[in-house]
Amino acid sequence: MERILTGDRPTGPLHLGHYAGSLRNRVKLQSEYDTFIIVADVQALTTHWETPGLIGVNVREVALDNIACGLNPEKASIFVQSMVPQIAELTIFFGLFTTADILFCRADVVPVGEDQLPHVEVTRFIAGRFNELYGEVFPEPRAMVSDVSRLIGLDGNAKMSKSLGNAIYLNDHPADIGKKIMSAVTDPARIHKTDPGHPEICTIFAYHKAFNAGEVPEIEDCCRKGAIGCVGCKKNLIVKLEVILAPVRERRAEYDKPGLIDDILIMGTEKAVKAGVETMALVREAMHTNYWKER
Ligand code: ATP
Ligand code: MG
């Protein structure tokens, strides 16, 4: 079975961008691949060094969001980056070239949003360089981008993001989702319901494409003809999002019990450490740094 590594920075709760760009894919892939989900707390510190306390809270939130969307903690190992010492150990050797978190478990595939492609490219370079110098130890991991490689933000920004405050979070209350959608910007040229619209520049249309694909041709046609208004179009989207998010909310509540998420993270991290130990044995063998092997 090929292996996957993917994950999130615990800088805030997850949103629809993660759902469309990565989580939806992860849930599908977990049965076909040996899956590792990294809660990248060390990466989070590259931007959130001023609020280290928040990261601990978000480690649990992000793990819960993954499970809420259908990740099965028995199949997918959800783990905490800083608790896998082999990643740090590898970094020392990769310091010869640079970063390490994808390679510690020798992942084959990395499902990510488009913004992460340069990161995967650097990782492929490092794997290739290592293999060239010491022999084949690492697969050169392939990036796998979903159909929605970048979900637009509520404010029309090119990316819905935790740090830009333009997100619909997976655990938002339905009333808040309603408010966020109703106040989102649509085509500014449409003042009256019958004005012809330009779906290609409309945030709401982008969301229909991501979460209501079946109705897209009809919505596009009606919008261009001025046969549906923005309010109706938004209300329809709210209903469609609720169909997706109601079960996510339910599953989240099921797992949001004292201690449970910590147990899941400990279990996932143990499996990640095991994968890391295997990798380090291969690395030390290849680099001839397994000095005490005989003892
Ligand atoms: P931050 O702003 O703190 O960096 P983020 O919203 O970018 O947070 P990350 O944890 O950095 O979230 O990203 C986790 C994964 O989700 C990555 O694979 C990323 O490409 C993907 N992702 C994040 N936002 C979107 C989006 N709007 N559309 C598609 N994929 C996304
Ligand atoms: Mg990011």
Explain how this protein is built.
The chain is mainly alpha-helical. The chain has helices spanning 16-29, 41-44, 52-68, 85-94, 117-134, 174-182, 203-211, 216-225, 230-255, 260-287, and strands at residues 3-8, 34-39, 76-80, 109-111, 142-144. The strands form two sheets. The protein has a three-stranded parallel β-sheet with strand order 1-2-3. A two-stranded parallel sheet has the order 4-5. Helix 5 links the parallel strand 4 (109-111) and strand 5 (142-144). Helix 3 (52-68) packs across helix 9, helix 4 runs parallel beside helix 10 and helix 6 (174-182) packs antiparallel against helix 9 (230-255). The two termini are 33 Å apart. The model has no long low-confidence stretch (mean pLDDT 92). Adenosine-5'-triphosphate (ATP) binds next to helix 1. Residues 8-9, 11, 17-18, 20-22, 112-113, 115-116, 150-151, 159-163 line the site of adenosine-5'-triphosphate (ATP).
Task: Please trace the helix and strand order, writing H or E for each element.
Answer: EHEHHEHEHEHHHHH
Measured between the Cα atoms of the first and last residue, the distance is 33 Å
| Largest beta-sheet details | 3 strands, parallel
| Gyration radius, rounded | 22 Å
On the 0 to 100 scale, the average pLDDT is: 92
The portion of residues assigned to helices is 40-55%
Ligands bound, unique: adenosine-5'-triphosphate, magnesium ion
Q: In order across it, which strands form the biggest sheet?
A: 1-2-3
Q: How many helices in DSSP terms?
A: 10
Work out the strand percent: 5-15%
Bulk shape: elongated
The tally of strands reads: 5
What structural class is derived from the secondary structure elements? mainly alpha
Q: Could you name the ranges where pLDDT drops below 50 across 5 or more consecutive residues?
A: none
